[in-house]
Amino acid sequence: MSTSTYGSAQPGGSAPGGETETVTDRLVESNRKYAAGFANPGMGARPVLQVAVVACMDARIDLHAALGLQLGDCHTIRNAGGVVTDDTIRSLTISQRALKTRSVLLIHHTGCGLQTLTEDFRHELEMEVGQRPAWAVEAFQDVDQDVRQSMQRVRTSPFLPHTDDVRGFVFDVTTGLLREIDPQP
Fold first, then answer.
1. How far apart are CA 89 and CA 71, in angstroms?
2. Residue 20 forms beta bridges with which residues?
3. For residues 38, 41, 47 and 49, what is the CA-based torsion angle, rounded to 10 degrees?
4. How far apart, in Å, are the Cα atoms of 71 and each of 17, 68, 74?
5. Tens digit of pLDDT for each residue in 102-138?
6. Torsion of CA 81, 84, 88, 94, to 10 degrees
7. How many CB atoms lie within 10 A of CB 147?
């Protein structure tokens, strides 16, 4: 496995006192180093570009780098698949109504893990833990169609006052390019 600014991606190094260092320990130590040189950027919570980006949580996607964004430019909402769920609508509503965003970018990607799951995942969880999850898996087969569905969910939400600039894309994890999805198939 490769290394990053957080050190080895493998857990289990030695921590002070002979204890096993966890990944979280490494991240907290990295934060201490970051904070030592941190200067308050002096900005508010409102995104400079008045845009919210909804994307998959996939670790291969560096949204800020891929979109040329800087700290403070956008709100970033990430979840499994980048699908528009009730919680996504909640975040977008707060983003638009309280923090003045106007545009929404929806970004799914090639090779998404949700394309390999089904709603049976919920049933399997219920059998394992004895409780059925209240949430849907939101699995999909066709990434383009799921982007269209996400665009439609945003555009028809009664809670979102700004739905005229909602665009959907598929990020190619092998080339880094975005491909725009036409809302109409």
1. 23
2. 14
3. -110
4. 37, 10, 8
5. 999 999 999 999 999 998 999 999 999 999 999 999 9
6. 140
7. 26
